[in-house]
C-alpha cells in the first residue's frame, strides 16, 4: 500500500454524501488516505454516509458545495481556500462539476495541486454546457473512471489528453463475498422487503431516476409471467432522492401490468452485500451510457449472474460474446430500452443448471479480482497524489 509524505492532507469535494458511485469512491479513498498515514478531509453538503466517513478516521466539513448558483460557487472558492490554508491541505480533489469550479479557483489562490475525477458522461448539448463540463478536465491530473470515459474526455477536451489517468472503480470483494454475509443479515433484509420463500429474486441496485431503466425492468417482468419460472420477484433498491413523480410513474406501471406481487420498490438499501447474497440475478437496465457501472462489478464480486445494458463502459466490466467466446462469458449484455431482450436474458440466466451457474460466476469473480478491487483503485489514486506532491505540480 502506498504511503503519503508525512502530514499530507487530502481534501475531497463532492456535492453530498447520500448514495452513488462517486460518493462510495470518496469514502474508499478517504479511508485509504488515513491508512496511508495522511489526513483525509471531505467537504460536502452532508448526507447519510457522513457517519461511515467519520468512523473511518476522516473528517467531514459541511459546506454548500451542492449549489450551482454562480455567487455561491464564488463564495465556496473563498471558503475552500480558507480551509486549505487553515488545515494545510496539500491536494484538493473534486468529484463533481459545480464544486469543481470552486475547487479550481481555490487551488489557484493557494497554489496546491488540483485533481478531478470525471465520474459521468455529463450532458453536453451546447457551447455553454461544454464550458461548464470542461472544469472536470482542468485538473493537474484528470482521473477517468473507465477507458470509455477517457476517450470521451479526449474527444470533448483535447487539451487534457496528456493529463488523463484511467483508474477504474474498485469494489470491496471481501465484503461482497456471500460467505461473509450472515444468515441473520439475509433474513432481516428478506423480511424487510416482504419476499416470500421459493421465488427467484432479481435485484436492481440503482437510484430511482429514469435513465437507470427501472421501467424497462418492470416491462420485462410483464414478459415473465409464465409459471415455469416459479414467479421471479424484482426488487428495485434505490433512493428516489426526491423524485416523487418518477416513483408514482413506476407504481402506476407496476399496477397497469398487474405486477404488484412481482415487483418491489424498497427504497435505499444500506446493506448491499446482503442484498446481493439474496439475489439470483442482478440487472443493470440503464438507458444511457454508464461511465463505469459499479453495480455490475458488485454483482460479479458477489457471485451473482448479471445482465446489463450494452452501453458505455459495459464492455470493460462484463464480458460477453462477440467480444469474447461463449466459454469466457461473465454475464449478459442486452440492447438498452428493450424489455423483450432483457426478459429473454433473465429467462436464460434463471434456467442455468447448478454447474453452468457456478462456472459463470467463477469466471466473473476472477474477472473482478483481476481488474476491479478497491485496493487497486485507492492505491493508484494515492499514487496520483504522491506524484503531484513530488513534482510540485500546481
Summarize the structure in words.
The mean pLDDT is 93. Strand 8, helix 9 and strand 9 (233-237) form a beta-alpha-beta unit. With 394 residues, this protein is an alpha/beta fold. It contains 16 helices and 13 strands. Helix 8 packs across helix 11 (272-278).
Describe how the helices and strands are arranged.
Blueprint: E1 9-13, H1 21-35, E2 39-44, H2 50-55, E3 59-62, H3 70-87, E4 91-94, H4 97-110, E5 114-118, H5 127-133, E6 141-144, H6 147-156, E7 164-166, H7 173-176, H8 183-193, E8 201-205, H9 214-222, E9 233-237, H10 244-256, E10 263-265, H11 272-278, E11 281-284, H12 294-301, E12 306-309, H13 314-317, E13 332-334, H14 339-350, H15 354-371, H16 374-391
Parallel strand pairs: 1-2, 1-4, 2-3, 4-5, 5-6, 6-7, 8-9, 8-11, 9-10, 11-12, 12-13
Short synopsis of the structure:
With 394 residues, the chain is an alpha/beta fold.
Amino acid at each position: 500500500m502506498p504511503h503519503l509524505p508525512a502530514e499530507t492532507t487530502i481534501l475531497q469535494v463532492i456535492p453530498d454524501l447520500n448514495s452513488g458511485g462517486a460518493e462510495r469512491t470518496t469514502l474508499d479513498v478517504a479511508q485509504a488516505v488515513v491508512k496511508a498515514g495522511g489526513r483525509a478531509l471531505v467537504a460536502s453538503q452532508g448526507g447519510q454516509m457522513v457517519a461511515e466517513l467519520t468512523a473511518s478516521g476522516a473528517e467531514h466539513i459541511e459546506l454548500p458545495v451542492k449549489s450551482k448558483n454562480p455567487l455561491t460557487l464564488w463564495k465556496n472558492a473563498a471558503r475552500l481556500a480558507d480551509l486549505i490554508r487553515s488545515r494545510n491541505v496539500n491536494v484538493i480533489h473534486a468529484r463533481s462539476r459545480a464544486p469543481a469550479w470552486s475547487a479550481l479557483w481555490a487551488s489557484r489562490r493557494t497554489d496546491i495541486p488540483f485533481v478531478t475525477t470525471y465520474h459521468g458522461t455529463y450532458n453536453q448539448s451546447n457551447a455553454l454546457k461544454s464550458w461548464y463540463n470542461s472544469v472536470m478536465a482542468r485538473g493537474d491530473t484528470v482521473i477517468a473512471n473507465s477507458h470509455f470515459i477517457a476517450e470521451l474526455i479526449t474527444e470533448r477536451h483535447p487539451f487534457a489528453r496528456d493529463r488523463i489517468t484511467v483508474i477504474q472503480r474498485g469494489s470491496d470483494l471481501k465484503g461482497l463475498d456471500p460467505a461473509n454475509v450472515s444468515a441473520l443479515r439475509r433474513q432481516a433484509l428478506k423480511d424487510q422487503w416482504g419476499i416470500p420463500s421459493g421465488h427467484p429474486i432479481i435485484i436492481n441496485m440503482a437510484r430511482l431516476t429514469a435513465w437507470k431503466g427501472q421501467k424497462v425492468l418492470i416491462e420485462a417482468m410483464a414478459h415473465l409471467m409464465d409459471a415455469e419460472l416459479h414467479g421471479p420477484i424484482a426488487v428495485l433498491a434505490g433512493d428516489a432522492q426526491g423524485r416523487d413523480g418518477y416513483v408514482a410513474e413506476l407504481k402506476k406501471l407496476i399496477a397497469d401490468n398487474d405486477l404488484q406481487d412481482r415487483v418491489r420498490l424498497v427504497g435505499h438499501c444500506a446493506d448491499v452485500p446482503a442484498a446481493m447474497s439474496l439475489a439470483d440475478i442482478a440487472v443493470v437496465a440503464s438507458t444511457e451510457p454508464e461511465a463505469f457501472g459499479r453495480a455490475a462489478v458488485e454483482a460479479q464480486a458477489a457471485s451473482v449472474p448479471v445482465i446489463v445494458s450494452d452501453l458505455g463502459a459495459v464492455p470493460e466490466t462484463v464480458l460477453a460474446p462477440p467480444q469474447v467466446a461463449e466459454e469466457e462469458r461473465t454475464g449478459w449484455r442486452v440492447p438498452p430500452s428493450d424489455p423483450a431482450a432483457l426478459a429473454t436474458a433473465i429467462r436464460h440466466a434463471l434456467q442455468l443448471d447448478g454447474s453452468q451457474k457456478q462456472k459463470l460466476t467463477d469466471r466473473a469473480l476472477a474477472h473482478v479480482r483481476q481488474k476491479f478491487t478497491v485496493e487497486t483503485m485507492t492505491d493508484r489514486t494515492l499514487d496520483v497524489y504522491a506524484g503531484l506532491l513530488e513534482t510540485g505540480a500546481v
